[in-house]
Amino acid sequence: MSKLTIPDELFERLVRRAAALNVTVDRLIAPALDLAAQSPQEAPRSVSPSVFDAWLADVDSRVGSYPPGFVMDDSRESMYQGCGE
Question: DSSP letter at 54?
């Protein structure tokens, strides 16, 4: 396994955000890495920080409604389970 050194303060922010969203740090940062790898022509238009922050606040507000250890099964298989059978 490779190692990456980042400032402790940044890592703690990542850990807290991942915990609030009930995901691993890896899963939290993967979309950002995918976006950073895109060419400028492929990158989606920027979302206003206020819209994004409002969306995150909405997501955070629902965290307590799920049971401890809950993991969303958003796999393609589960989304299409029972369709066309």
Answer: H
**CA-based nearest residue to 1, from 37, 31, 36, 26:** 26
| Closest alpha carbon to 18 in 60, 58, 67, 46 | 60
Q: What is the largest CA-CA distance in the chain?
A: 51
25-60 pLDDT, tens per residue? Answer: 888 888 888 777 776 666 566 656 677 778 888 888
What's 47's DSSP letter?
Answer: P
Cβ within 8 Å of residue 29, ≥6 positions away: 14
Question: From the centroid of its chain, how far is CA 78?
Answer: 19
Q: Domain coordinates of the chain in residue numbers?
A: 7-38
